[in-house]
Amino acid sequence: MIPVIDRNRCEAKAACVEVCPYDVFEIRTLSSPQRAQLSLRGRLKAWAHGNRQAFVVRAEDCHACGLCVKACPEQAIQLRVLSSV
Ligand code: SF4
Q: Does 44 sit in the ligand 1 pocket, CB within 6 Å?
């Protein structure tokens, strides 16, 4: 299992960064191609938050505890089986 972030929901509130015991997440700036893939609403949201979002940077360290899924105030994180991502 690895966490997958919904780019149209994430608002970089960093609850996942704080709660994950294994440092799987970091807050980073969206690239231009990543911004281009967002919905109009997603682009507006991203702009309002400085184009910053959470990124999965150490997926291999995920222990599938589910803490990030529960902590995210935007319900932006799902755990998915690696082969289905
Ligand atoms: S499921 Fe647990 S270990 Fe995996 S990224 Fe979320 S908080 Fe971290």
A: no
Q: What is the full DSSP assignment across 22-57? A: T--EEEEEPPHHHHHTS-HHHHHHHHHTTTEEEEES
Cα 35 to chain centroid, rounded = 14
Is any atom of ligand 1 closer than 6 Å to the C-beta of 17?
no
pTM of the model: 0.92
Q: State whether the beta carbon of 2 lies less than 6 angstroms from ligand 1.
A: no
CA-closest residue to ligand 1 atom 4: 62
Per-residue pLDDT band for 4 (boundaries 50, 70, 90) equals very high
Q: What is the pLDDT of residues 38-75, one digit of tens each?
A: 999 999 999 999 999 999 999 999 999 999 999 999 99
CATH of region 2-84: 3.30.70.20
